[in-house]
Design goal:
Strand content: under 5%
Structural class: mainly alpha
CATH class of the largest domain: Mainly Alpha
CATH superfamily of the largest domain: MFS general substrate transporter like domains
Number of strands: 0
Number of helices: 23
CATH architecture of the largest domain: Up-down Bundle
Number of domains: 2
Largest sheet: none
Amino acid sequence: MAIEPKSSQATLGQDVQVLDQERKHLGIRKVEAVVGLATKKQTYLLYAGIYLYTFVTNLTSSVGFGLQTYVTGTFMSHSSLPIFMICNLILSIAFIPLMSKLSDTWGRLELLVISTFAFCLGNVFMAVSPSFELWLASSLLQTVGNSGLLAFKEFFIADSSTNVNRALVQGLPDLSGYIVAGIAPAIVQSFVDRQNWQWAYGMFAILIILAVAPLAATFFYLQRTANRLGLYKRQVTGNRTLFQSAVHFASSFDLGGSILLTATLFLILVPLPLAETYTDRYAEPRIIAMLCIGCVILPIFVFYESRIAKSPIVPLHFLRNRTVLGGCGVAFWTWVSYYSYTEMFTAYLLVTQGLNYRDAGYVASTWGWAGVFSAIVVGFLIKRTKHYRLWALIGIAVAMVGTGLMIAWRGHESKLIFIIIAQAIVGLGGGFIMTAVQVGVQAAVKHTDLAKVTAIFLTTAAAGGAVGNAIVGSIWRSTLKQSLMDNLPPQAYQAIPFIMGSPDYVVGTYPDQAMPAELLPFVQASYVYVQRILSITALVAFGPAMIAVFLMKDIDLQAKDGMPW
C-alpha cells in the first residue's frame, strides 16, 4: 500500500482545520481570533475590565439584596419577596441559554453591550417605579442584563484559560466581594436612613456604563484588528427577505423553546407561594389551573427541544454526558439549599437579633466572604492536584455541617457570633462546591460547546434558586401566619397582615408606624420557628447533591489541558 507523502498529509490536515473553522459559529471564531491576537498586556486589560464590572455587579447585587427587604416593606409586600425572586430567577433560566446562543452566533462583545444596556435600563426603571408591581417588572429587565454580564464573564474566562488554571481564574474577579461586603451594608443603611432608596438604582445605572466602557473598548479594538487581518470571516447569508430573516432569527435563538420554558417554570413555581394568599390555598381554581397547565406544557417543552427545535435552547444531548448531568444536579440542589434559608435571613436578623440594616448586611454577607475565600483556595488545590471531584465532596460535607449548626443556633436568644460562624462554614463549603463542579462540567466538553454547557450549568443553578424560593415562599406564608396565630393573643390578630407585610413595622423603624412592643417576643418566637424549618429544608437538599457528585467522572484536568481549539 502506498504511503501518502508528508506534504500531502499536512495539506489534508490544514484543509480539515479550515473546514472545522468554517463550521464554527461567528461568535466563536471572533473570540478565538481575539484571544489569539491579544498580547499579554492586552489580556491583562481585558481581565482588569472584567474585574471592574464584576465589582459593580457584585455591589449592585449586595446593595439590592440588602434593600429588597426595606423596599418591599415600603410597599407592604414583604411576604411577596419569594415571588419577586422566583420571577427573576425564571427569567435568568430563560435568558442565560439565549445569552449563550447570542454570544456564539453574534459575538462576545455584542453580548456585553446588549447586557449592559439592559442592566442600565432596568435600574433606571426600578428607580422611578411607584408600586411593587412596576418595581418587580423593572427588576426583570435588570435581571436580563445581570445574567448577560455574568454569562460574558464565565464564557470569556472559559475561552481564555486552561482547564487546570480555570478554577483559580474564575475565582479572582470575585475577590472584589471583600470590598463589597465591607461597604455595601453601610450604603444600604444610608439609603434607608434618608428614605431615598430610588437613588441606589440610579447610581448603579451610571456605574455600570463607566465600568464596562474600558473592557468594551479594548475588546472592540482587538476584534476590529482581527477582522482586518482576516483572522475570521463572516459567513455569507444570501439575500433574505424581512420575513425570512425573522424566521431565521426565531429558529437560531429558539424563541419557541424560550417561551415554553418560561411558561412552564412560571406556571409551576409561582403558584406554590401564591396559593398561601388564598383562603382555599391549593383548592383555589386559579392555582389548580396554573399548576395543571404548567404540568402539561413541561412534556411539550421536552418534546419540542428534543425533536423539533433546530437549535434548541437547552441541548438535552449534553445531559447524556454523566459529568455534565451530575454537575448540573449538584448546582441545582446547592442553590435549592442556599435559597431555602437566605431570602428571609435579613428579616430574621432584624426581628430576632435587633440589628439594623447595616449590621444585618454584614452578618448576611459572611456567606459571600467565606465563599470567595474558599473559591480561591480550591482554585489553587485544583491547580496542584489536577482533579476536582474530591474538593466538591469536601465542600458538600462542610456545607452540611454549617447548615446543621444553623438549625441549632438560630434562636432569638442565640449569640450572634454563633450565627456568623454557621454562615461562614456554609459559605466555605459553597465556594468549594460551585467552583470545583463548574470546572468539571467545562472540562467534559470541547471548546465549541463551552458556552452552551456553561449556560446549562448556570441555568440549572438558577432553576434550583427558583425552586428554593418557591419552597421558602410557601413555607413562609403558611407557617409564619399559623405560628403567629398560635403565639399572639387573639386581640392582636389584626396586626398579622402588617407583621407579615413589613419587618420595619415589627422592629419600629418608624415609631409612628410601629407594632406594640409587648408583641415582639411572640413575633420573635414565630420567626425562629419558621427559620429553623427553612434551615432543615436546606440541609435535606444537600443529600441529592452528594449523590449527584458521584455521577461525575473524576477527570484528569492536565490530560485534557491546553487550549481545546
